[in-house]
Write a structure and sequence with these properties.
Length: 78
């Protein structure tokens, strides 16, 4: 089972392999990577901000992929 960050990265990779704008795909991946990395720098394996701050942001980024078969509404929906 994949987590939400992996789900987003896989979708961006699929877009990059398709006919989507490479610049748009790179921007989306950069957003996710930057948000995850910046918050990860705050420390800890499962810090307080993971559920409170990071997950809501990632869930909104995943909304455009809600029709994808790997989208898990019970876990990914905001």
């Amino acid at each position: 089972m994949i987590n939400l960050v992996q789900f987003l990265r896989y979708r961006f990779d699929e877009e990059a392999a398709g006919n989507h704008s490479p610049r748009e795909v790179a921007s989306k991946r950069l957003i996710v990577d930057h948000v995850v990395d910046e918050l990860a720098d705050l420390g800890g394996d499962n810090p307080w901000w993971y559920e409170d701050r990071l997950m809501p942001i990632l869930k909104y980024l995943a909304l455009p992929y809600a029709d994808h078969p790997d989208y898990r509404d019970e876990e990914y929906a905001p």
